[in-house]
Amino acid sequence: MAEATGVLVLGELAGGELASVSQELLAAGRKLADDLGEELTIALLGASVEGASQQAISYGADRVYAVTHPLLEEYQVDLNLAALESLCQETNPNVLLIARTESGRELAPRLAFRLGVGLAQDCLEVSVDPAAKRLLANRPVYGGNAIAVISCDLTPQIAAVRPKVYEPLEPDPSRQGQVVSFPVELESSQARTRIVERVEETSTGIKLEDARVVVSGGRGLGGPEPFAHLEELAKVMGGAVGASRAAVDSGWVPVAYQVGLTGKTITPEIYIMVAISGASQHMAGCSGAKVIVAINKDSEANIFREARYGVVGDWEQIIPAFTAAVRELVQS
Amino acid sequence: MALKIGVLAKQVIDPEMPMAAFRVDSDANKVVTPPNIPPVVNGFDENAVEAALLLKDAQEATITVISSGTEFALDVMKKPLSMGADELILLQDDAFGNTIDSFFTARVLAEAVRKLEGFDLIICGRQASDWDNAQVPLGLAELLGLSCIALCRKVDVSDGKVTAECTTPDGYEVVEADLPALVTVSNELGQPRYPTLRGIMAATRKKPTIWTMSDLGMDSAELEPRVTLRSLFVPETGQDCEYIEGENAADAGRQLALKLREDKLI
């Protein structure tokens, strides 16, 4: 078998457009490909992927594999796995980057096992070891308390990269690239799970992941009622409300509010954390926040080691006064 | 026929331990097991035991818990038995170290599942709190060729099918698959039940089955590594926090607003 070559990015589509996570991955992949002296390719899976192909090239791809089949119209993990498995066997990439999104976090390990290779899961950084010309991946372990640097021993070397850690390149619409059609053969019987129903539970208003300001509450709030104060503050600041896992596990707010390692990854300009101790598992979801503000009555709480601004005291006194002052400042 | 359920459970360093006790031996590339802090059953794996028990509450079922490792704290690993599981299989061998290589662990577990002649349903926690790999369950489904549903918060079985509610970024979806299947569960499933006194006494009398690598008919030569841990370190975190003070707490809240205004953040 010919030697594996090239950096392949698994693209994701959002409403027919190239998803922002895929733009990020192309930036990460571009650097790897240049350091390896190899080509950067992207796989786009769907019933038709024309719209996103040129976008992918403008964001850095040298070549697009348009992996198409009518059954790929709706995302189904088994069918996507089968399509990707044949693409990998056919094109023999050296490196494969997958975004650790809701779909990627299931697909990446299953693809790695199917191909019989290793996977670096949930990476914060991917680079090329200059001596060995192999992929090096930094990933948080032990709830983010430690970082492991790992390498994959076989090819493709697969890394699942955490969303929002790489910035997309400036798109260049004049960039040239090749679009290669890669039709796959799939049977509907390959889909081993069926989606019976989809239910949305999110609060109305600004999405947590997109919000410029996020106000989160934790265990120290003591119940669901105080979240009304956080909602009010978020409204005044044009933001969204999040929560720690403790608040979600207590049933105070829906699961969709959870920020952290097993919840959402957010990158707001301002992250206001109310009565959250700041365990590394929570910080894993908000380390990309520009400014963290901590309000906690425990002056020893870990969060004061991570925050830019801290107020030690009772949130019941602080939040209403803070909200009123912000309202005044915003209106003035 | 009783539903045959397998649950994977891992013994981990207590993630709730004080952060000050967390140490990395950078020469050996491993986390130092803190003295005087007993290990625990991985939290998400307790959710998996709970999911199995909820099924067993509603229908005839047997629950077999499987764990792989080099040494076990028996009183800790018997917790699923005291919660109500029927049987505990410990895959214990010096070769079964706590590796970051999920492929190795999944291969060992797959062999044990085959030796047990398979399950109707395997339930796993979404990830272990040590390596946070979230790979072994999904890999096991691949190795065994099982249908797979990830990140469930509710699991039901009837008519040879598993129906699960899976968490999505905006809510949940209801997904079904034919048995045999593997599902992973998360904390959204709800609090695991506490062992009852009767459960604890029953667990005391139960002896785990212990299988070594040779009992599984495996040879370390066939377990070629897939990933290599190059280094392990504690990241530099933290910054100097500027404490905002005031005449009282309410005033501190107002001062905070003024400070954010000063920084043009609001």
Describe the structure.
The complex is a heterodimer of chains A (332) and B (266). With 332 residues, chain A is an alpha/beta fold. Chain A folds into two domains: 7-190, HUPs (Rossmann fold, 3-Layer(aba) Sandwich); 208-331, 3-Layer(aba) Sandwich (Rossmann fold). In chain A, 27% of the residues lie in helices and 28% in strands. Chain A has eight helices and 18 strands. A seven-stranded parallel beta sheet of chain A has the order 7-11-6-1-4-5-12, sandwiched between helices. In chain A, helix 3 crosses helix 4 and helix 5 runs parallel beside helix 8. Chain A starts with 6 loop residues before the first strand and ends with a helix. The model of chain A has no long low-confidence stretch (mean pLDDT 95). With 266 residues, chain B is an alpha/beta fold. Chain B folds into two domains: 3-222, Rossmann fold; 236-266, no CATH class. Chain B has seven helices and 15 strands. In chain B, strands 11-10-9-12-8-1-6-7-13 form a nine-stranded mixed beta sheet, with helices on both faces. In chain B, strands 2-5 form a two-stranded antiparallel ribbon. In chain B, helix 4 crosses helix 5 (136-144). The mean pLDDT of chain B is 94. At the A-B interface, helix 4, strand 7, strand 9, strand 10 and strand 13 of A face helix 4, helix 5, strand 9, strand 10 and strand 11 of B.
